[in-house]
Amino acid sequence: MTPSASQARQRPAVGASEPAAFGLGSLGLLMQLGGGTGIVVALLAAVPAAAQGGHGSQVVFFFALLYGVRAAFQRAAGNVVLYATDTSPRRAIATYVWVAACHSAVMVLLLREHLDATTLARVAMLLMAWPAVLLVYVSLPRVRAQQPARALMPSRPVSADRDLAGAAVLMAVLGGVGAAGAAVFMAVLTLGDGTRDVAAPQGMAMLHGLTCTGPLGPGAWSLDSVALARWAGIAAAALLLARSVIHIRAGLGALRGHDADTRMAPGVRYCAVARASARAAAVILGIAVLAATGDIAAAALTTAGAGMALRSWPTILLRLYSERRFEAYLAEESGGAGGCGPDSGLQALGWVLLGLGAIALGQWLAGLPAAAAHGPLEPWAAMDAVPWRVAALAGLALWAGAALVGARPRGPRWASWCALMGLADAAAWAVDALGGHLPSMAGGLLWALELAVALVTLMLVARTRSRLPVARVGPGRRPA
Q1: Does the residue 112 lie in any domain?
Q2: Structural domain span for residue 35
Q3: What is the pLDDT of residues 359-368, one digit of tens each?
Q4: Structural contact between residues 300 and 286, judged by C-beta atoms closer than 8 angstroms
Q5: Model's pTM, two decimal places?
Q6: Residues 63 and 106 both lie in one domain
Q7: How far apart are CA 168 and CA 26, in angstroms?
Q8: How far is CA 418 from CA 26, 82, 360, 397, 403, in A?
Q9: How many other C-beta atoms can be found within 10 angstroms of the C-beta atom of residue 186?
Q10: Which of 271, 292, 317, 471 minimizes the number of CB atoms within 10 Å of its CB?
């Protein structure tokens, strides 16, 4: 069906790729994902707290409510960045930044009587790391000139490939992170003893029940509730691992496309698989919780929460494909080009590196006094043990991320160096683990995150570098 003229006027103009866009579409996808996941986390914390009653539960409910409001503003800002034509993206992002700053200040004030100074600083840094990155972005002169906050018809730059390459890069990154996390969780359930996770003050009693004895040890084939819960957890992790592998393949496959249809096809197939696997994994996780705790309400809440969280990203992608297919039709009708943007989606990788680098640098800064006075403390022992290595990696991630987002010619090279340093750091962690210094569950997930991001970064740079434009050079200058 031919789109109407009124529908066409509601869509932003799609023209040649503009490096000044700073990967705005990829940023919108990340904000939608982060906001949606935050809303699910807030619901999972608020519902049982409201049902239990008592002063402690009321405090948890209040904290969850505050975080849910912040997450809702982040998701709304992501929607504006991606789709709205009557609101400035910069204004929406700035609104979320101020909401996040107010939320962080309130949390620090409420927790200062209950946490030591180091932990309080870590919480504050964790809450403000991502908003700080966005604050720097909205303060840039180029962004202020391009996106006036009070413009009647704000300019929303859209890349020539309609943000599809950025979405493909995010698919590869998120798939790699998901595969690494699922593999670590499955390894812990299969081989770990869980004693260190119980000793850590993380309230992981259920995980303790699942990891006290390995399923491959004595009594592995008994039909008791603990064995059933462990095997259900392993099955859910294996299913999520397979889904993540499909996720990676879909992202890399989408980068090989040369038009809108070939870029969307792998993602659409992944979304169909992801939504089906989300339901199955949520049910299996609910069975695991029911077998481990015997609490029907907790099992139902786990099933609902896991289902919503696992369907969040496929739903975001499907909406993007639906909107961008319409824009591709308009571009073809007007004779516009539909090729890949000059950054080949690497600006999306830049936003990921900026976020991770800001979080790591903030946690390192907050942990310096404690590391100097008391030595490494869990679950940040890996960060505190070799502080200058962590600081160097975080600084390099920030530098590489800024270079990629700004579409600088040397951005891919800096990203490659960052990935190589991340692999070296992950190898150092592995050597420590083989020497008997086994990390906690949180430490293992951090290791998996670092390894996955480093490997996927190298793969993406190798695949997309040939598509990047050649830098302009003047007399006496060598190309980057």
Answers
A1: yes
A2: 20-157
A3: 888 878 876 6
A4: yes
A5: 0.81
A6: yes
A7: 10
A8: 20, 29, 14, 6, 12
A9: 18
A10: 471
